[in-house]
Amino acid sequence: MKLVEVHESLVGILVPKAERIYDAPVFYNPVMALNRDISVLALKVLGSKRVLDALSATGIRGIRYALETSAEEVWLNDINPDAFRLIVENLKLNFSGEPEFREKKVVLRGDKTLVAMNADANRLMNEQFRYFDFVDLDPFGSPMEFLDSALRAVKRRGVLAITATDTGVLCGAYRNACLRKYLAEPIRGELCHEAGLRILTGTLVRYAAKYDLGVEVLLAYYRDHYFRTFLRLRSGAKKADESMKQLGYLYQEPSGRFDYERAFLPSKVKAYGPLWLGPLKSQEFVEELYKLSRDSPLGNAKKTPEFLGLLRDELDIPFHYDTHALTRRHGLEVRKLAGVIEILREKGYKATRTHFSPTALKTDAPFEEVLEALREL
Ligand code: SAM
């Protein structure tokens, strides 16, 4: 394997030299620097001590956790033996100390304890029952095959950080796969990304509820064709019941008008879901991430604070209006988003941009008022 050194934030690591990222024997995607930035900032804010990077590839994420946060013990695991060898090389590159070699496991003790493993993530997580404060799942595609084990490996008040890159599934391009993996009906069209993120979150909530765990969504977002969620677990059947009450269904008419209901079963036909209808962020948590992003070393010093600023300012209510889709549905001319937002605000409604689409807004205004604003301009 030919290697090349790359730098991200404070970390220098070796990655395979490859024409295209999916051809490489060990996976490394520089575009995910923003995902890793936000994860590092989240860990800084949370102050978690025992951390698992369960699907680690080159080790970049776990190494950043160890170097940039107050985590005391970081485990980096990958089933691929090439990845495991590279993780060990990258640990040696970034930390001093004598590695202890055991079979398929290397431990490096210094200021921090670093553990590299070459195991099936499910096996590792089942063995380390309620051991970690923070478990990161960053798989190829869907995280579902790892979810039960992650819920066992994490402490009952711990945090799960989960990526899903199967957006085609969650956004309805592969409906049957969504039914199979997430037991949910996806929607196509302009609401598909927000609905996809809410289907994913809703499924995580249902899985956690099996273990009498409730969920606080610290942050859930969509970006660069993936979804990412940070969930703080809450111990107890009552907490799980409270979370389950935030599940429900979305409805959308051909006019673009949408409606939703919190219910265990849908009361009408043509329902999309079940999906999460609770908050997609803790405002306090996102404010802290944003503040920290402005004076922390980052992999993407421009886009990460910009994106966190957008998330901070976004109105946190279910679903949005895409101005392009609405004008298309109603035969109107395309309008500037800023103008529509201004009209709604002048009328006393709340209205903001949304990270789900550069042409969409979130508002508490009724559907007719949004259409009226599009016509007024
Ligand atoms: N977290 C990495 C980063 O930020 O660069 C990228 C991880 S990559 C998307 C997914 C990794 O999961 C691959 O390296 C793959 O070998 C590993 N993997 C897949 N199935 C696994 C399993 N059952 N157990 C452990 N690792 C697995």
Low-confidence stretches: none
Overall pLDDT score: 97
Gross geometry: globular
What composes the largest sheet? Answer: 9 strands, mixed
Terminal-residue CA separation: 58 Å
What would CATH call the homologous superfamily of the largest domain?
A: Vaccinia Virus protein VP39
CATH hierarchy class name of the largest domain: Alpha Beta
How many domains? The number is 2
Number of strands: 17
Kindly provide the radius of gyration, computed on alpha-carbon positions and rounded to a whole number of angstroms.
22 Å
Q: What is the strand content?
A: 25-35%
* Class based on secondary structure composition and strand pairing: alpha+beta
Spatial sequence of strands, sheet with the most strands: 5-6-7-4-3-8-9-11-10
Oligomer category: single chain
Q: Given the structure, what is the number of helices?
A: 14
If classified by CATH, what would the architecture of the largest domain be? 3-Layer(aba) Sandwich
CATH topology of the largest domain: Rossmann fold
Helix content: 25-40%
What molecules are bound to this protein?
S-adenosylmethionine
